[in-house]
Amino acid sequence: MVIFDSVTKTKRPFEPIKEGEASIYVCGPTVYDDAHLGHARSSLAFDLLARTLRALGYKVTMAKNFTDIDDKIIKKVEATGKSMQEITAYYIDRYLKEMAQLGVQRADIEPKATESLDAIEAMIQRLIDKGFAYVVSNGDVYFDTSKDPRYGEISHKVHDDEENQSRVAHNSEKRNPKDFALWKACKGEEDICFNAPFASGRPGWHIECSAMIEKYFDGNGEYSIDIHGGGADLLFPHHENEAAQSRCATGHELAKYWMHNGFVQIDGEKMSKSLGNSFFLKDALKVYDGEILRYYLNSVHYRNDFNFNEEDLLAAKKRLDKLYRLKKRLLPGKASAVNPTFKKVLLDAMADDLNISVALSVIDEMVAAANEKLDENPKEKALKKETLANLEFIDTLLGFGGKEPYSYFQIGVDETLKAQIEALIAKRTEAKRAKDFAAADAIRDELTRMGIAIMDTPEGTVWERA
RNA sequence: GGAACCAUCGCCAAGUUGGUAAGGCCGCAGCCUGCAAAGCUGCUAUUCGCCGGUUCGAGUCCGGCUGGUUCCUCCA
User: Fold this and answer.
1) CATH architecture, domain defined by A2-261
2) Peptide bond before A237: cis, by omega within 30 degrees of 0?
3) What sign does the CA torsion over A408, A411, A415, A416 have?
4) Extents of the domains making up chain A
């Protein structure tokens, strides 16, 4: 496995800190609102990472946190009158359900800030004790970036204090402009606060992740985890700050590899709520099946920016359709063993920093080759069984193609409509038998108007939702 | 203002060590079909934003320009 490390900006061979294992921590969402397409993309990208590493034989432990203490959540509490727990539990539940629709496997560890306060406080205390952090008059605790000579190495940000000074002038008690809050002291009665030795208050955003990683991963004395992931926007300041805190608190580096996924745009425009475009994942899921969205969102390399639009989505759907049409030709039957060459080529592609484009092209070629052979000899049992096994492998590695093909093509068609369609097809088959092609074509037109496409096969007429 | 990344066929998109452009969508022709659809076959960039340079040879390296995105503030 080769991974593009955002810190060195090069592809580096994956050499885990513990032989045969892979520890991954991905920054999850702050749960104050519904998940958007960007969350989906990040989630999907690291799902692919975990699946690939598992397929390569690594024992993967993946953690994805929920930030459930945050200013935006507090604002939502104030705006809705609901409790913080109600709000965060609601959005966590929705997030998990929507990601499940995309075929994202659950993380092995899903830590929450509210459940990690002990670790957070301990780490802050350690930083204070070691002189890397300081408490100011109101009880806020800041990390002293000047005490960490390696601060800036993750994001390659140059210290340009002069310029930044003006921006953060109001934080007068900060010793350096780049210092950031580890703990925010309670401001008023209505604030949501937790007790801590330094002051009643709540943790800063960055410390959560550092503390959770220390809590759940042992590391090897040199690094705490193998891979730290997240959106490209998190590189600075979030990951820079995480790295600094952990480095100073533990004496070793946080992660051996850093991976960052690219951004999602919609129809060429920056994704924002004000645009009113299908910003939320839930809206996209109303229109498109999760599996298609998964295929589409994963069809572009995770580091590239992604321009979400209907035309491309449709092209992606057609590619997936082809795979399922092949699957129709293979059933009923049982899978034998995956073709070793196919497996190797597919895995090699994914092992190259998740080269999904090559992986998908390998699949397309496999599908075409199988169709060709089946055209020649529709009853080739060994081929059918092997192809079925190939499809199973694709499902395990990439998370699509696992459905029963007829149901895939009939998503959103209820039983009544189904019966109606099948009755029409039966009528058409009768008309065809009687060589009444005008009547047969009229029925086909009617089905087309209903959004149903039909195709005649040696085994009879089958239909799909167009 | 500072920094990073990107720019390949009508559209999406691959292309570590420079060696002569994957795959998909669309389109065209053919096979198959009562006709279609589906599937298959063939065709579809002498060319990789522009201008220079290095080299026997560059999409791939270097410099400049143009265009786009991102980060420097909460953000996947």
Assistant:
1) 3-Layer(aba) Sandwich (3.40)
2) yes
3) negative
4) 2-261, 266-408, 412-465
CB A400 within 8 A of CB A295: yes
Specify whether the backbone of A412 is left (phi greater than 0), alpha (psi in -120 to 50) or beta.
Answer: left
**Cβ proximity of A141 and A183 under 8 Å:** yes
Nucleotides of B under 7 A from a protein CB: 1-5, 11-16, 22-26, 33-41, 69-76
* Percentage above 70 pLDDT, chain A: 95
**Please, what is the end-to-end C-alpha distance for chain A in angstroms?**
39
Superfamily of chain region A266-408? Isoleucyl-tRNA Synthetase; Domain 1 (1.10.730.10)
Distance A322 CA to B47 C1' (A): 30
Nucleotide nearest A317, from its CA to each C1': B25
Q: How far is the CA of A355 from the C1' of B68 (A)?
A: 23
Give the C-alpha separation, A48 to A435, whole Å. 52
ipTM, two decimals: 0.95
Within A 70-109, residues with CB less than 7 Å from strand B: 72
Distance CA A305, CA A307 (A): 7
Cis-peptide, bond into residue A405, ω within 30° of zero:
no
pLDDT in tens, A351-401: 999 999 999 999 999 999 999 999 999 889 999 999 999 999 999 999 999
Distance separating alpha carbons of residues A211 and A213, to the nearest angstrom: 5
CA gap A39, A263 in Å, rounded? 10
Tens digit of each residue's pLDDT (9 = 90 or more) over A416-425? 999 999 999 9
C-alpha distances out from residue A224 to A45, A227, A228, A251, A353, Å: 22, 9, 10, 10, 22
